[in-house]
Amino acid sequence: MTRSPKRALVTGGSAGLGAAAVSLLQAGGYEVVVLDKDSPAASENPVKHISCDLASRPELDAALPELIASGPYGLIFLNAGINATGHFESIEAQAHIDVIRINAEAPMVIFARLLEAGAMRRGAAAVFVSSLSHFTGYPGAASYAASKDALAIYAKSMRRHAKSRGVSLTVAFPGPLRTGHAERHAPKGADASKPMDPAEAARLILADALAGRKSSIPGSANRTFAVLGRIAPKPVTALMRRLIYSRL
Asked: Structure pTM?
């Protein structure tokens, strides 16, 4: 009897961390479905692309039936995210709304619907990509920090229910990544060589997810930062203010 192929879903899989995860999953023998408003780059191993602007709830609701029918999935990588940086009151209200919808609402809705529809295999792994900002304040990107914190708390709250369906749940907390989107939102004078290579971050996160770990903080420097954020939140937030907010 021929076994059905392994299948993975990656949101925001056309660039950055998502694209890196797609490449690694394909190398691991997965057929990959990408949910993204942008088309993935052409490659020798094409993916199934479902076009959707996650800032639009009507578009997401319209895409869900095809997303469910494209399963069942052995792994989902809920990665799509955007940022909005600057002084809070100077950022347009719609930008704040889009950040919350893409970073928090969309992955919550997708995971709940896939689980409800039985579109995840028993033994599947789900990855929620939060942010290192979960461990400290993020002056200059308050909506982003709020959305990623909400996602982390949602994922932790869903862990027991997911386990009852045979699905392990990992929350990933990557730090700054070397991506075009991150570069556009970096403060003036930021060293573009310091952020982590998204391919390395994806490798570490997927390894943790497939091992069934509850959380993943890729990179020793990021793990150190997370510890400092827990034990000395005020000084770390003050440092973030100097490094980011004061330079925007």
From this structure: 0.90
